[in-house]
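Problem 3 from the worked examples.
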Amino acid sequence: MLIEKHGIAEGFGIGFVDNKEIWYLETACGHRWLACRMPKDRYFVTGNQSRFRLYDPLDTENYMASNDLLEFAEKHGLYDPKKGSFDFHEAYARDIKLDTTYNYPRVWGLQAMFSPGIKNDVTKNTFPVYAKAEKPISIADMRHAFRFHYDNTEHDPYLHSNPKEPYRPVSIFRTTQTHILQVRPELPQAIGCVNYVAMGMADLGLFLPLYQGITSYPEAYTKGEGKSSADSAYWKFRKVMALGMVNYNKYAPIIKEAYLKFEAETDQRQREMEEEYLRIYKTQPLRAKDMLQEFSDKILTMGIELADRLQEELFTQLTKDIQAEYLFHGA
């Protein structure tokens, strides 16, 4: 309704997820839009570009759209029924040279990660809209995907210290937050809905679980502005990232090893906590609620403590490296 009433200046996409289904909406700029139900046995990857193709107005189970989506396209020469089926991307989106380096490579890279059997051409927008994963996609796989930067290839901008690399990575430094939303309908909503958040870029960030059932966060997570501060969780994680980027090939492995270990241990702690939660939540709901809050406070605090330790370790290493470079031995 808001799109149709007020219109929009540029295209965007947004996902909707609940305990029954996932929908994704793409806009056509102006006052038009298309939303598709995500197939349960497929995954969907998009960069900063429209990806939808087919639209069947009679299939209301899987499609929703502005009422005049087809008529407007036909009236204004964006779609000719005589030339074949309606293609949302061809009618309302674009494919320009920028897309071949800014958007295509991300779709190409993640589809290659999850479906290595698919043989896509990175230079052409012929990627399947939905793809079948070679194996079930876990939260750990999602973390890995959000950290993707053409790792260890010629297009890896961080490995080669090349900020002018034309392929836009998934994980970029200017990211404010990275989110993974998980809904498990078989579990109570308090623990079944989890938002895994990394402050800043995912590649040098730490994913922390935020359960829907918690009601507060450690104070440091409520602070943060555009200027670095010692009491902000956001800036604690940001400082580690900034130090990592000073000498990525030397410092990033230190950060990654520590964060991957923490995430793996947190995964196990989550499993153990959730088992206990399920055991008591029906007969002891308040105790279950308190236990979940205590768990969240502990994990989030441990995350900050790890970032603090890494910051000190990296500053120590940076000091040694600078001293070795500017030693003036014998002076």
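Problem 4, a separate protein:
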Amino acid sequence: MNENARTEWRGARPLPFVAAFGGTIASIHVYSIGPFFEPLQREFGWTRTDVSVAMTVALALGGFLNPMMGLALDRVGPRMIALVGVVIICSAMASLGSATGAAFNWQLLWLFVAIGAALVQPMVWVNAVASRFDAARGLAIAITLMGPALGSSIFPLVSSLLIDGLGWRGAFVGLGLLWALLVLPPLLLFFRGARDLGVQKIGKSNSIMPLPGLSVRAGLTSPTFYKLLAAGGLITFAMIGTIVHLVPILIEGGASRTTAAAFAALVGIFSVIGRLVTGALLDRYPARTVALVAMVSPILGFLLLLFSGSYWTMAVAVPLIGFSLGVEIDLIAYSSTKHLGLRNFGFLYGVLTAAMTVGTAIGPLVASQIFDHTGGYQPFLWLCLALLVSGGLLLVILGPYPRFVDQPQSNP
């Protein structure tokens, strides 16, 4: 680690870890829903598609809110948005316990969730960290984005325990209340980005040094932007669609329910390892080189799932997939800061996360529909394998990092 990196860590050491803890809530609505499938189906006579479709529509709508959220981040900073977002998403998760069984009611509740999810999505946490780290940005972003990865291990287990103890209605309420109590105090104390601190001001003058980067227009017309957009949507569709249905996929492969749940718990652990390794590599090598290495892991994992017939192949496949869960977000977040810059990072990354949100929303639904129509997950896994290869290639063909030169500008 060079001296610039050490200086950054001395000045903002708690921030990536607090952002990671706060960022767990970005995945609460995705990774907690799996254990609720069975009780909701039993209570209301729904299919898995019925359970998934409201989440899909709401998350897709939330994805279209991302650019507006990015504009807000560029203007007011991430702190206030994160604090308000935690309150809303936790309240929205608790409200799911009031579901009546009517389709309109379930969809309306998920619209509430979508609003909260838009306010606590990964770009909020990345925005704060990227603005205070440069030399150590890769590792700092990787630590930040461990939050959703940790959520993939924590939320299924917590949800299952709460359902066993409180029933599915009480579990939704307990989940929202518990995470609000855990997350809000450290955010109030330590979560501040550069804009929250006002560090762009030059002395006591009215001048501001803009963060380096492309204008909105230049960013939206950049070929690199569209490579990142497509890669994010394709890879997220495959990864999240598979992870949400991982337990039934493993059961279909011959595992017992208990064994499948135990294997699924490995996903979050290996995701954390994968993200830390990826972050460290990004501080040393170009993102396109890291992407070439990182995307081999899930491709091998999916091949093993497709041809698995034993616990041993599953035991290898799940860690390989888990190792790369969320790595596409790390790669796209980091590549965005380097290729598009930080001046309009909120808006531009907001558009990119819209594609990833759509992938997150559609992937589980398509998996449900394929299962409902074919009685199995094999066709879905083949589709995901093709999307992973395509998305990985788009990241590999990114060009070299541009150099941004900015001059101070005065406030009007």
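Solution to problem 4. The CA atoms of residues 8 and 133 lie 6 Å apart. The chain has a mean pLDDT of 84.
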